[in-house]
């Protein structure tokens, strides 16, 4: 850009850079003012390009849910993270929480003092059976409803009954602590977990949660992504077993909707699942040559030298895998591995981080069998082959897209293809059924009305 400097000495409003003050322009000639304004505009164009306005999509609400959903139960921690008498701090869905277990009761309050914002978790003081005291200036809050109970260094304060902190409903199931993030009366937990998860005979092995540098939507979509299985050709489990992965579990053309079953039970979770039984099985593909050079046929490493019919027969002999996706943010993959269900909650921490709880479920007849599954057997039969040797590659892939979506306008720039159809089906489903979207302004809203469960 060329800067054109006017031949005049009087400064007019149009000559000034945006936001210029009188002090800034004092003593400046019109030519200087214009030069600065134009230089400013040039710099803006070069260094800080305006992101183009976001195109409206049929899944617009999904795009707005950077921080996840509000008015839902989420797993916050493992039961073992919070032994009797302990506290546990966790950030989720943008909120900073402090979990407390005291005399067998569970509590959850915001980890932020109403006085001046000190984090209780930096020195948690549970000095009575149901209060938390701020270690800075002694304000003491009721763990049940967050109300200010007293102030130790001002016993006759008039503030009691007038202020407090947020308190969150919390409950425990299947070895996890679930917290309700929202303001309305919480629904039963069974509304927000996959079908069958709470069944009495479903034993759950709990792996250590992973913190991923990825927005929760990138993490959640990965498991459901029909085109992503290509990555698993390099998973240790596949290499060791010699059982090749297809290049994707992509629905046959025109059958994308037919393979999906919606779950819309008003007293249960909302979501849908698809069965991989009818997918196109591609183990080998051709990269066309150009300029007279020959085509290249690429075959999945473990499929080399094996007839296609044999590979298809082996695949169809396995119990069909059913991949489910549920609100607010979880996957349930039935028969993965065979006879087991792999659950994965992609809980938003903030806009750019996700805590992934991967859990292995198996139906057990006796309590003794369930006990073994939750320990040694689940470790050997589920955690090592499924997490350590397989899903570890999903976590890598989930994070590899983050820069594009976080910094490069990825939600607008993504170019989708047919196998992404089922992802967009979920995005639309989500946009239609989500109870409420979490937003930054709700994080600093007024305190809750108190404990509700
Ligand atoms: Fe907590 Fe002052 S900041 S009592
Ligand atoms: Fe995967």
What features would you describe in this structure?
With 453 residues, the chain is of the alpha+beta class. 25% of the residues lie in helices and 25% in strands. It is built from eleven helices and 23 strands. Strands 11, 12, 14, 15, 19, 20, 21 and 22 form an eight-stranded antiparallel β-sheet that branches. Strand 6 and strand 7 form a beta hairpin. Helix 4 packs across helix 7. The termini are far apart. The N terminus and C terminus are likely disordered. The protein binds FE2/S2 (inorganic) cluster and fe (ii) ion.
Q: How do you describe this structure in short?
A:
The chain has 453 residues and is an alpha+beta fold. 25% of the residues lie in helices and 25% in strands. Helix 4 (216-224) crosses helix 7.
Which stretches are low in confidence, meaning pLDDT under 50 for 5 or more residues running? Answer: 1-13, 15-29, 31-49, 448-453
Discrete helix count: 11
Strand content: 25-35%
Compute the gyration radius: what is it? 28 Å
Largest sheet: 8 strands, antiparallel
- The counted number of beta strands is 23
What is the straight-line distance between the termini?
64 Å
**What is the mean pLDDT?**
87
> In which range does the helix fraction lie?
10-25%
Q: What is the approximate shape?
A: elongated
In terms of structural class, how would the helical and strand content be classed?
A: alpha+beta
List the bound ligands: FE2/S2 (inorganic) cluster, fe (ii) ion
